[in-house]
Specification:
The chain is mainly beta. Helix content is about 10%, strand content about 45%. The protein has two helices and twelve strands; from the N terminus they run ββββαββαββββββ. It has helices at about 70-80, 115-120; strands spanning about 10, 15, 30-40, 45-65, 90, 105-110, 125-130, 135-150, 150-155, 170-180, 185-190, 195-205. The strands form two sheets. Strands 3, 4, 5, 6, 7, 8, 9, 10, 11 and 12 form a ten-stranded antiparallel beta sheet that branches. A hairpin with a 2-residue loop joins β8 (about 135-150) and β9 (about 150-155). The chain is globular.
């Protein structure tokens, strides 16, 4: 009998958003990967083709499963993903952008970090998750950006539901559309089935933009 799967309830642009924070006893692994095809006919030069003509972000997140209930929820999530089949949005869980002034409507003034010059329309840098101190989560797309002194003034869509003050913001992380990089996931049981287990999930960007 197939185990029923369960995806996160928060959705953004038609896909679930997996917001559970990984354990950070070690630095979270981030990188990039290209879909390369090597052609070698044993004569002449070897040809390497970038089939997608772009780089895909990769992330490894580790999780500590400290109870039977936590293990069951994690397994339900894995069954819902069904290996590499299902896509979802994954935040970096880093403070990628820092709110510098009150955010109102579509305007999000953040500390200047070169986004207006280098980040706009860049895969993996077009969507953000705003995490507020009260636990509220706001997923938004950055549709425009301009430099203004020490501030990058971003325009987001849809508009914010109310004014947001810098002291309310826990972090602003980039969101990336990803899938599991492999169909198999290994779970290490540190103690028995009712105790502690560890698991690492490797994700690869799925090309959503």
């Amino acid at each position: 009998q197939t185990r029923p799967g369960s995806m996160p309830t928060l959705t953004y642009r038609g896909l679930p958003v997996f917001t559970e924070r990984p354990e950070e006893t070690k630095t979270l692994t981030r990188g990039q990967e290209r879909m390369l095809l090597t052609l070698d006919f044993d004569t002449g030069k070897t040809q390497v083709i970038d089939t997608a003509n772009r780089a895909f972000q990769t992330l490894e997140h580790r999780f500590l499963l400290a109870s039977r209930a936590r293990m069951n929820a994690f397994l339900d999530f894995l069954y819902a993903l069904n290996g590499q089949q299902k896509a979802l949005w994954l935040p970096t869980h880093a403070a990628d952008l820092v709110l510098e002034d009150i955010a109102v409507g579509p305007s999000l003034p953040v500390k200047r970090a070169g986004y207006a010059r280098f980040g706009l329309d860049t895969a993996g840098r077009m969507d953000i998750l705003i995490t507020l101190a009260d636990g509220a989560l706001l997923a938004r797309r950055i549709v425009a950006a301009m430099e203004d002194g020490n501030i990058d003034r971003l325009a987001v869509s849809p508009e914010l539901p109310r004014p947001i003050y810098p002291e309310e913001v826990e972090r602003i992380s980039f969101l990336t559309c990803m899938r599991l990089a492999h169909d198999d996931v290994e779970i290490e049981h540190v103690t028995d089935g009712n105790g502690v287990a560890r698991a690492a999930l490797n994700f690869r960007g799925c090309g959503e933009s």
